[in-house]
Amino acid sequence: MAQTIKSAVHVGPSLSKQPFISKWSARYRGATIQDLEPPAALSLNPTDPVSLALNAAFEREYTHLTVVDSETRGLQGYIAIPVLQAQLESGTVKPEDPISAAMIKFQRKGRRYTVITLDTPLEELEAFFEGVEDSQGQKQEFAVVTDADRRFVVGVATKEDLEEFVKRRPA
Prior knowledge:
The chain contains five helices and six strands. By secondary structure, the chain is α+β, with helices and mostly antiparallel strands.
């Protein structure tokens, strides 16, 4: 089903030929993801128990954890803690189950991924969250921050991180 975008400032390739116009660009003033000061990434393995993911996320107050291959450290997917909590409450997964039973796997075939690094301008991050940078036009709740070569995960940036940055920055 097609999603209707109700924001007046959201102008993307699927809606118009005009470039994306950020609603907060005056507050960014050249800031990059590094200015958000994202905490270090916490990556778990698919074989780790669900209880480890839950405890680690609560200890660090993380909402998303990345899942990497235990040997290659290649990014395989992620765990969204609110979704994991719902799965535990419904009995879909148990604390002793492996993370692979609850993780959301990245679909690599036929998709172009946007590389997000510490040097990515906040306007580009906002566009990514609004679905402008995503080939599917889907809005995103978080971004996996990697090195430029996509060899390792540096951190995770969320929409909330961006909103907090804007609140702290005078207009």
